[in-house]
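Sample entry (133 residues):
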Amino acid sequence: MELGVQLHYQLPAGAQVLPALDVELQLAPPDAPGTVRRPDLIVVDHAARLRTRREGGVVRASEVLLLVEILMPGSHRTDLVHKRGEYAEAGIPHYWVLDTDPASLRIDDAVVTGTFTTTEPFPLELDLDALVD
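Predicted structure, serialized as tokens:
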């Protein structure tokens, strides 16, 4: 939850960080069964969260601003290969994988440790070491 807290206080107005909600990847035709994943954290616009509550549905891939998976023993291949490919195909613009042993963040092919500073998808600074203390 520490990552969610750090994100929460730096999000732009109108964005929300949400834990473990289903995301419809929108890879199948509308009349076919879809592909749904439940990432550890997602950041969406407030309007997407309201729509999801109102309709009782899932978050759409097209509504996701940032998606984060937390690497667990046994999930390396799924998180780093399978999900990365699915999320890219679904058009999710920002996919991060947090590894807590040791504390690092994988973004595309880069691995970041210590303090992570970025302007995409919005300006923020994360203290990765604080995530495992």
